[in-house]
């Protein structure tokens, strides 16, 4: 592969979940080189994701930001305490101190995350930001949330 220059050629950055059922580029019809992809458990706009998005819009040609959560996400499958218990059980250690970030309401979390991006002091007003719920069974992106 040659010709990659690190710029997001389609002007897109996507924050999405680390779930292996998700193929972020194919989800939105893009190809390698087109987009900045940031992944973490749940597809949350974390502090680290925000820094990456600011770098994207300032230096890497990003003009559209998609925040994408998905159906049947493990992070939304149980509460914080239960996820901690599952991790602890598997590792045979106390994991109750680990901040996992369980999601209780995905649409609410998406709206909050979109607001978080839009309200960042270094986020240009003209950047489009949208939140979406991806259906892992149908392979379709839902209508914009937030
Ligand atoms: Zn997930």
Task: Report a brief summary of the structure.
The protein is α/β, with parallel strands linked by helices and 146 residues long. The protein has helices at residues 24-27, 47-59, 80-91, 106-118, and strands at residues 12-17, 35-40, 64-70, 128-135, 140-141.
Category from helices, strands and their pairing: alpha/beta
Using the alpha-carbon principal axes, give the shape: globular
CATH topology: Beta-carbonic Anhydrase, Chain A
Average pLDDT metric: 94
Give a list of the ligands. Answer: zinc ion
Give, in order, the helices and strands: EHEHEHHEE
Question: In order across it, which strands form the biggest sheet?
Answer: 2-1-3-4-5
Largest sheet: 5 strands, mixed
CATH architecture group name: 3-Layer(aba) Sandwich
Uncertain segments: none
Quick one: how many beta strands? 5
Number of helices: 4
Helix content: 25-40%
Q: Given this structure, which CATH class is correct?
A: Alpha Beta
Count of the separate structural domains: 1
Radius of gyration, in Å, reads: 16 Å
Taking the alpha carbons of the first and last residues, their distance comes to 37 Å
CATH H-level superfamily title: Carbonic anhydrase
Description:
The model has no long low-confidence stretch (mean pLDDT 94). The chain has a single domain, classed as Beta-carbonic Anhydrase, Chain A (3-Layer(aba) Sandwich), CATH 3.40.1050. A 5-stranded mixed β-sheet has the order 2-1-3-4-5. Helices cover 29% and strands 20% of the residues. The protein is α/β, with parallel strands linked by helices. α1 (24-27) links the parallel β1 (12-17) and β2 (35-40). The protein has helices at 24-27, 47-59, 80-91, 106-118, and strands at residues 12-17, 35-40, 64-70, 128-135, 140-141. Zinc ion (ZN) binds at residues 17, 19, 42, 70, 73-75. Zinc ion is lined by residues 17, 19, 42, 70, 73-75.
